[in-house]
Design goal:
The protein starts with 6 loop residues before the first helix and ends with a helix. Strands 2-1-3-4-6-5-7-8-9 form a nine-stranded mixed sheet, with helices on both faces. It contains ten helices and nine strands. Helix 4 (60-72) packs parallel to helix 6. The radius of gyration is 17 Å and the shape is globular. The chain has 223 residues and is of the alpha/beta class. 39% of the residues lie in helices and 20% in strands. It has helices at 7-10, 13-27, 43-48, 60-72, 83-86, 91-99, 127-132, 145-155, 200-209, 213-222; strands at residues 31-35, 53-55, 76-82, 106-110, 138-141, 164-167, 175-180, 183-190, 193-195.
Length: 223
């Protein structure tokens, strides 16, 4: 009998990430998927494009280095990992191997902020602060599965040589931040639009999406 799904399960972040990257892999042969032993979102891509899939095992630093090498060769690698480890354990590799040479590596990480609920080692309270401080890095936090899909799709062609990180959580503030040298530009995402941080729509979006103490603090910074 065919298995049925609830709307929440169908639109879950995990299914959206996997489906979207698999679709992009069919459209563009430059798309690779790499993971440090994270299963969610990888099955369909692995089955369809095994030659463009790499599982490095529990080695976040290695997965960033391999992705950088693939990007140097003209590919667009996507990494699926856990934010506590992608933002802390692999931070030096992200900064030196990906951000300094401005390579098109796309990092998609769950367990962002305080949403991990896996114990003290699995919280990523510093993720936004660390990634937003990196040169050339674009950081996005999707507020719902629809926006998550839109960001992943647009990231394929976003300033071809530009690293990006997408933090994935149960509830997040919608914002992006781009820093180049000592100058930074901030914007708030609403659907697929980029709107001015000083506009009433941006302030309302930040207020509407703020759910936790950490997120309220971030919303005030972005506004």
């Amino acid at each position: 009998m065919k298995q049925s799904y609830t709307l929440d399960e169908y639109n879950s972040a995990r299914s959206v990430v996997g489906d979207t990257i698999a679709e992009l892999g069919g459209k563009d042969s430059r798309v690779w998927l790499l993971t440090p032993d994270i299963g969610f979102g990888c099955k369909e891509f692995h089955e369809k494009y095994p030659d463009r899939f790499i599982d490095t095992g529990i080695a976040e630093q290695d997965v960033v280095g391999v992705s950088a090498g693939l990007a140097y060769d003209g590919n667009i690698p996507f990494i699926i990992g856990m934010m506590p480890f992608m933002s802390m354990r692999a931070l030096e590799q992200v900064r030196t191997d990906v951000c300094y040479p401005n390579l098109p590596v796309r990092i998609i990480a769950n367990y962002a902020g305080l949403t991990g609920n896996g114990g003290s080692t699995h919280y990523a309270m510093e993720d936004m602060a660390l990634y937003s401080s990196l040169v050339n890095m674009t950081v996005c936090a999707a507020s719902d599965p629809v926006q998550l899909r839109q960001i992943i799709e647009k990231s394929l062609y976003y300033e071809a040589r530009c690293p990006s990180a997408l933090t994935q959580a149960r509830k997040t503030v919608c914002c992006t931040r781009r820093r180049t040298g000592l100058r930074s530009a901030r914007a708030t995402w609403r659907g697929t639009e980029r709107i001015s941080p000083s506009s009433p729509a941006a302030r309302w979006s930040a207020m509407r999406c703020s759910c936790t103490t950490r997120q309220r603090r971030l919303a005030s910074v972005c506004a």
